[in-house]
Amino acid sequence: MKRKNAVAFAAVCAGLSLLTACGSGSSGGTGTSNNTAGAAAYNAGLNNVVNPSTKAGGTLNYALSNTPDSTDPGNTYYALMWNFSRLYARPLLTFKSAPGADGLKLIPGLATGLGKTSADGLTWTYTIQSGLKFEDGSAITTKDVKYAIERSTNYAPSVLPNGPTYFQQYLTDPTYPGAYKDTTPDKMGLKGIDTPNDTTIVFHLQHPFADFDYLVTNPQTAPVPPAKDTGSNYQTHPMSSGPYMFSTYDPNKGFTLVKNPQWSASSDPNDKQLVNTINVAFNVQAADIDSRLLNGSLDVDMDGTGVQTAARARILGNKALQVKADDATTGFLYYAALNTQVAPLNNVDCRKAIMYAVNKTTQQTAYGGPIAGGDIASTVLPPTVSGYQRADQYAATSQPNGDTAKAKSALQACGQPNGFSINIAARGDRPKEVSAAQGIQEALAQVGIKAQIQQYPTGSYYSTYAGVPNFVHQHDLGIILGGWGADWPDGFGFLSQIVDGRAIKAAGNSNLQEENNPQVNQLLDKATQTSDATARNKIYAQIDQIVMSDATILPEVYSKALLYRSPNVTNAFVTEAYGMYDYTQLGKA
Questions:
Q1: In Å, how far from its chain's centre is CA 53?
Q2: Residue 541 to residues 76, 210, 490, 556: CA-CA distances in angstroms?
Q3: Residues 211-248 pLDDT 10s
Q4: Does residue 213 contact residue 106 with C-beta atoms inside 8 Å?
Q5: pTM given for the model
Q6: Any idea what DSSP says for residue 423?
């Protein structure tokens, strides 16, 4: 997921038959066991619930450095929104709210249990709880879940461009035109989904897909009542099926959530409804967010990507502040996509010149250094994802300062001995990403490549700029900075939306480099139909090696994030499912 920072996941945990490994993906833990109460201490929130409390009341104040891609559950792909949206949009399944490895366990959301699959693996059936209601008191049925998928990015990308397209790729009826263009009699809808009654929903697959339970943790399965759907404006007031509902929304300033009176803890034991109000402020400068966190006037940095350089130095240099921080291994990869459709990067040797030239130590420093930034990356798959295999095709770890001689040799091979000009895209409201872009610019200049940095806002980065291939081509965005975490914790959940050529979209595109290697596409298909986990993981490692040989993704760091755990909040811990604090649990001290 990005998601676009991506949903970050750690090592795969037991829960489905195909999952074999289990372990914490967090770093620097206190050594105490999972799911226990933890006192305030450095890294206490990695494996413990810090400041546990059932106290109700008060207001939680969040802030974002820009805007979310969307608050519409059918139109979002940022990890922060997949985490936060659970407060008002309940998917069929979700991840257990618990610190450590327990946070990767699948549990029911709207559903009564995990999916039941047919003997041939081509159908998955879920039963939802009866008696569930939207915020207005109307009944939630499986028809609302089906409609939510029909209107989502999968089938209506011209209206809702963000989000993955797994359902469109893997359900039968892939040419369904979407809810807004459906002309079938009585709008019978997508044939790949049946709703035989108000509590049963059946998904029909083109071929077996063992990970399907993970797909329905996607917020795209949160119910949407057709009569309340306002298309692209639905984000201003999604109808709540969770503990909170929208009270106000301003696209430039932010929004406010209040308690949903139709929600019941008995039907949703995983989530909490402690505070009375949740305020989210948009377009707050990142440095100001850090300052307000440290002075206590702000409770949560909703981005969840860690504090900036000045605050990091202040926290790590002050024991009183350090005990309120968690250095979390997020499961994200920060990387630069080298677009294969922007000349001269349509030549693999020109891409390899960049792979060799970039100073990886500089990139690591830009993201926060080895403690709060992460380890230098040399593969597409992070070590926290099943299928990772240690490799270093471009000497990222053995020669972290870059190899100008090999870079110049690659430039000769691609017919650009004197270098060339190219543009770099970065999110301007994310200082660490801008610093990383500057590091690339400086390194490329040493081998004659002139790179200009183009800055775009986080909220529309994928929907309008870097994720729109036509815009990328027209503006020569040959190098595009991004971050990615797994949509679910295995190689397919990490790779499919960023390297499968069939996942390239006209807008909201996550395959930023426009990788479309038939061998990669075929191996991804093979992986979904391989039942043996060991064999499947070998396929993911092979895909990683091919993508690195194609030189379309320049790995920068396997991300860590120094998160500040405000003493103003209760029940704070890092969820390994999203690589940040679990927003469904927080209360006000």
A1: 29
A2: 28, 19, 11, 18
A3: 899 999 999 999 999 999 999 999 999 999 999 999 99
A4: yes
A5: 0.90
A6: E
